[in-house]
Amino acid sequence: MAAPGGTLRLRGGAPRRGPLPGFHLSLVTTLLWLSGIVLLPLAALLLRPLELGLSGIWHSLAEPRVLAALRLSFLGALAASLVALPAGLLLAWVLVRYRFPGRRLLDAAIDLPFALPTAVAGLALTALYAPNGWLGAPLAALGVQVAYTPLGVGLAMGFVGLPFIVRTVEPVLRDLPREAEEAAATLGATRGQIIWRVVLPALAPALLAGFAMASARAVGEYGSVIFIAGNMPMVSEIAPLIIVTRLEQFDYAGAAAVGLAMLALSFVLLLALNLATRFWRRA
User: Fold this and answer.
1) What's 53-282's CATH class?
2) Which of 51, 177, 193, 237 could be joined to 253 by an S-S link, Cβ 3.0–4.6 Å?
3) Among 6-10, 184-188, 275-279, which stretch is predicted with the lowest mean pLDDT?
């Protein structure tokens, strides 16, 4: 029977244990792990730059080299994710809606950036797009240089961000009922109208979520970028490399200041994308 307050009791009057024993122990363990892995490092990142003082933090971040690296990291990540967005949608559409020889191989290849070590990915991209590489040489003949330029940085960022878009959109597209498309077709809608007014509105939240994850991964990417970037100050140098350089110079507070700036900018970016996703879902 149910005792006052909703507690279940046996016939003898003793309370029955819940179906999930050890809740308090699990909660304490989870909070300890969360504190040790997430909260304490974030607290250290927030407190360490204070050694420089507010003026020192501003001076450390206002250097032209740092500003150029931050601009390249964030604008490059956004541009690469925007380019990867239609490509990821197309790949997800092909994998879900079509059956063809080699489909399983293509499906496995999309996850390759997840498993491939970042340094190996950077070396492979550099070998392909260097001025004497397989793809870099024909492009150089056309006057397009990819390696050691911001274009190469964006290429590496798009390489690591594309799987996030595909894997985010794919399950939503698989669950999208085709009856809605068939109903729109029976009402006289063209294929373009069906995609624009039926398919894309249903996929928009997943596309925004995939774009957010791809951008967040691209901003902090290091191994896949430094090889193809060339790391030329004010040209192709990324913000994570600034942090590594300052750490090698034992400027821990300066490195933490750059990391704090990246954390703040990433938080603003993700917050804006999450708000856009919620607004789209309500609309």
Assistant:
1) mainly alpha
2) 51
3) 6-10
